[in-house]
Specification:
The chain is α/β, with parallel strands linked by helices. The chain folds into two domains: about 170 residues, Quinone Oxidoreductase, Chain A, domain 1, CATH 3.90.180.10; about 130 residues, NAD(P)-binding Rossmann-like Domain (Rossmann fold). Helix content is about 25%, strand content about 25%. Helix 9 links the parallel strand 16 and strand 17. Bound molecules: nicotinamide-adenine-dinucleotide and zinc ion (2 copies). The site of nicotinamide-adenine-dinucleotide has 35 residues, from helix 1, helix 2, helix 3, strand 11 and helix 6. Pfam families: ADH_N, ADH_zinc_N.
């Protein structure tokens, strides 16, 4: 017998979410039933609610994939070390097969059979969520639940992007977009020892970037980021977490020879124009990076527990979910908004 719970639900890509009472099914044999404490609002949830991407989410959908909660019960066949009472993270990678060449080589984020939380399966904008136990990650005591939430997607994704970029201490890293992801991307680049140039359209975001350790800032509304970053010698790596194709092109053109651009944001408008000749002659790499693994997330929590990262967040109530989406879309939210259940 399932129970009832409050959840924010997408019924139609062109309508606001509705906060309503829904049935919570019993967890499957390999799932944990988790009572949600907090859930971050990722821009991906907005793309999901609007049906922005080539692959559409299920409907009706409960979005949310930065879930923090307490395990209340377990299915019969849970083999991971998760126990009732554990405080766990529910990430975007909701399920992976566990057997394919990606799953067995530490790249389960590329599993072709994966199911994504708050997209293919119901997510964490709710009082409860059923999560496949193999993919949940225990949250260490030193990490508070409001701060844990943004680390579960924004944190792990940008930590992984910096790993994929191969950032070294002498590098200049450009971070395009200082939102939920970007405010953490710049901190991981600093932890890797790099100098950082932060690019955004809003002065408040750039002053936050400065506070968090950015060495340089560029306002892409009033300055040409390519020109400004070239003045600094060009970026060794540019990480694009801005929801605009133009920023991807600027990130690419801001590179020095041998540089790497890492595509992370997923704007609705899916195309960019990049030159072949310069890519070849300049030995430039264009990389895509998708979230991070359980091990990456464990490392992200360790860094935070050790006091090495700062999560900038503001609390919201799930009843105000539509206003919260609007704030993020308009660039008015300060880094991450987190729902407290
Ligand atoms: P956000 O809205 O919090 O942040 C986006 C930031 O980009 C904002 O600060 C905004 O002002 C800035 N921006 C917008 N246009 C810009 C431009 N032209 N130049 C510079 N800055 C600009 O969003 P978020 O939650 O950080 O997510 C960012 C993107 O990353 C989304 O598209 C999301 O779907 C995607 N995402 C990808 C992954 C992945 O694994 N690859 C994981 C999570 C999120
Ligand atoms: Zn697999
Ligand atoms: Zn996300």
């Amino acid at each position: 017998m399932g129970k009832k719970m409050q959840a924010a639900v997408v019924h139609d890509f062109s309508k606001p979410l509705s906060v309503e009472e829904v049935d919570l099914p019993d967890p499957l044999a390999n799932q944990a039933s988790v009572k949600i404490e907090t859930s971050g609002l990722c821009h991906t949830d907005i793309h999901a609610a609007h049906g922005d991407w080539p692959i559409k989410p299920k409907l009706p959908l409960i979005p949310g994939h930065e879930g923090v909660g307490i395990v209340e019960s377990l299915g019969k066949n849970v083999r991971s070390g998760i126990k009732e009472g554990d405080r766990v993270a529910i990430p975007w990678l909701g399920y992976a097969c566990g057997y394919c060449e990606y799953c067995t080589s530490g790249w389960e984020t590329l599993c072709e059979d994966q199911l994504n939380t708050g997209y293919a399966i119901d997510g964490t904008f709710a009082e409860y969520a059923n999560a496949y136990a193999d993919q949940v990650v225990k949250i260490p005591k030193g990490v508070d639940s409001m701060e844990a939430a943004p680390l579960i997607c924004a944190g792990v994704t940008t930590y992984k992007a910096v790993k994929v970029a191969g950032t070294r201490p002498s590098d200049l890293v450009a971070v395009f977009g200082i939102g939920g992801l970007g405010h953490l991307a710049l901190q991981y680049a600093k932890i890797a020892g790099a100098s950082v140039v932060a690019v955004d359209l809003f002065e408040e975001k750039l002053s936050l970037a400065k506070e968090l350790g950015a060495d340089y800032t560029v306002n892409a509304r009033t300055q040409d980021p390519v020109e400004e970053i070239k003045k600094l010698g060009g970026a060794d790596q540019a990480i694009c977490v801005a929801v605009a194709p133009q920023a991807f092109e600027q990130a690419y053109h801001s590179l020095r020879r041998g540089g790497k651009v890492v595509f992370v944001a997923l704007p609705k408008d899916n195309d960019v124009r990049l030159p072949i000749f310069e890519t070849v002659l300049n030995g430039v790499s264009v990389l895509g990076s998708i979230v991070g693994t359980r091990v990456d997330l464990k490392e992200v929590f360790e860094l935070h527990a050790a006091g090495k990262t700062r999560v900038v967040h503001e609390k919201r109530h799930l009843h105000d979910v539509n206003e919260a989406l609007k704030e993020v879309e308009e660039g008015k939210a300060k880094a991450r908004l987190v729902f407290e259940m």
